[in-house]
Write a structure and sequence with these properties.
By secondary structure, the protein is mainly α. It has helices spanning about 1-10, 20-50, 75-90, 95-120, 130-150, 175-195, 200-220, 220-230, 240-255, 265-285, 285-295, 295-315, 325-330, 335-355; strands spanning about 160, 170. Strands 1-2 form a two-stranded antiparallel ribbon.
Length: about 350
């Protein structure tokens, strides 16, 4: 697409707009959103015809969820399709960061697809075993980390940037591979744990993607990175386009996932979106900022860890049910109330995370 536009800009000055990452990011948002709206109804009907009774509902979950039986899952295919097509249309295909991010997104999405498929065929909520899922994620993230380290500037390739400090890094050396894999896998599974209510994970993912679209743009510009005293990583500005596509794809999916959901995201979408956000955070050297901006996902993950540890060590549960969004459902909050309040938390955390760009 960019090669064609490069030819056309010689014919009319209008086509010079496509030289700007910011303009192509807007195009990516709109393309992914419109594509999601177009393929959404068709994909829902197709998945209904394949899945019959839809995603199995947990019998130990909130009673209100039982009425969702029959809703098709694997809606993440809608997001993956729209994001991938939009990114390939508007991003520079000569940029290695784009390809690495897409490989992680599609690879993690394939693992999620396998998990969803097993849930449907076995008619239970177990799906792919945790061991197999982690092994698959580890293999993909290890390969991706190798590519990232190769593409990053040598002076910061295996270092962690610390928020609030100017040009302060912690060198990890070979241990950076373990750190990078932890971030990718952790982000992937954190989004997966959050995806338990209609629309709950979709909007926070879009918020985090929008924030990292801005961060990627600033990190990839030498003038802005010098002014803000943040790491400069050549080529990462192009990741803004993928982030924009993710925002558009997520919002298009939300059109059909808004309560009451016509389709569930499934692990196909949640594992893929979390994984690619973690990957982008590593590329732009803002992994710790991801923990702030994506603090809602961290909160959900910690609630599960606390619940499990407390029950194993004390024989008591801290929450009525984990992840924590189910705790509030058990306390009597209506599902839309939980979802909207968690969206508000996600927005506040995003603003706090973005403030780290200037507070140094």
């Amino acid at each position: 697409m960019l090669e064609l536009l490069g030819y056309l800009k010689g014919l009319n000055i209008f086509f010079n707009l496509f030289n700007y990452v910011s303009f192509r990011t807007v195009c990516a948002v709109l393309t992914a959103f419109c594509l999601s709206l177009y393929i959404g109804p068709r994909m829902i009907e197709w998945l209904k015809s394949l899945q019959g009774s839809g995603q199995p509902i947990r019998t130990d979950g909130p009673e209100t969820h039982l009425k969702k039986a029959g809703t098709p899952t694997m809606g993440g295919l809608m997001i993956l399709t729209s994001v991938t097509v939009s990114t390939l249309l508007w991003a520079s295909l000569a940029n290695p960061f784009i390809w690495i991010a897409l490989v992680v997104m599609v690879g993690f999405g394939a693992l999620g697809f396998g998990d969803d498929f097993l849930k449907l065929t076995k008619r239970n909520a177990a799906g792919l075993s945790a061991r197999k899922k982690l092994l698959g994620q580890a293999a993909i993230s290890l390969i991706a980390t190798g590519g990232i380290v190769f593409c990053l500037p040598d002076e910061i390739a295996t270092k962690i940037a610390i928020p609030f400090f100017k040009h302060y890094y912690i060198p990890l050396g070979i241990f950076f591979f373990a750190w990078s894999m932890f971030v990718m896998i952790g982000a992937s599974n954190a989004v997966n744990l959050t995806d338990g209510l209609d629309g709950l994970a979709t909007v926070p993912v879009a918020i985090v993607a929008a924030c990292f679209g801005l961060i990627a743009y600033l990190v990839g510009r030498v003038d802005f990175s010098e002014y803000l005293q943040i790491p400069y990583v050549p080529g990462t500005a192009e990741l803004s386009i993928l982030c924009g596509a993710l925002v558009g794809g997520a919002m298009g999916f939300l059109w059909f996932n808004a309560p009451p959901a016509m389709i569930f995201m499934g692990d196909t979408g949640s594992l893929a979106m979390g994984g690619v956000l973690g990957t982008i955070a590593i590329m732009v050297k803002h992994e710790l900022v991801l923990a702030i901006i994506g603090g809602l996902f961290v909160m959900e993950t910690l609630s599960v860890m606390i619940q499990v540890l407390s029950f194993k060590l004390r024989g008591k549960r801290v929450f009525l049910m984990a992840p924590i969004h189910h705790h509030f459902e058990k306390k009597g909050w209506a599902e839309p109330t939980v979802v909207i309040r968690f969206w508000i938390i996600a927005m506040i955390l995003a603003l706090i995370g973005l403030s780290t760009l200037k507070l140094r």
